[in-house]
Specification:
Order of helices and strands: HHH
Helix content: over 70%
Oligomer: single chain
Number of helices: 3
Distance between the termini: 33 Å
Shape: elongated
Radius of gyration: 17 Å
Number of strands: 0
Strand content: under 5%
Structural class: mainly alpha
Length: 101
């Protein structure tokens, strides 16, 4: 979607690799906890704090990644990037919306 040139790709790839490395443990924790919930080994409430802490770490790193990527993009690409981020955020916002709203 962004039509990155080769220089931009070279700059962004290590940023994504760093994000993946920095958040690997947190993402694995969340996935393992949700698998335990699906298997009936625990409840969502029991893992809520641990998953919440892991999610905060992922969000912090994602904010850093997003800012770093924006720094590599041209203004026309930033517009497309922001639209893509907004599209991705919509389903999560809807999931957090209280019932009946």
């Amino acid at each position: 979607k962004l039509q990155l040139d080769s220089t931009q790709q070279e700059k962004i790839r290590p940023l994504i690799a760093k994000f993946e490395g920095d958040t690997k443990g947190a993402r694995e924790t969340m996935m393992a906890n949700m698998q335990k919930v699906r298997n009936g080994e625990t409840t969502r409430e029991a893992v809520q704090v641990e998953n919440g802490m892991a999610m905060m770490l992922v969000r912090e790193h994602l904010d850093t990644l997003t800012k770093s990527i924006r720094g590599v993009l041209r203004p026309d690409q930033i517009k497309v990037f922001d639209e893509w981020l907004a599209e991705r955020a919509r389903p999560m916002a809807e999931m957090r919306r209280p019932p009946g709203e």
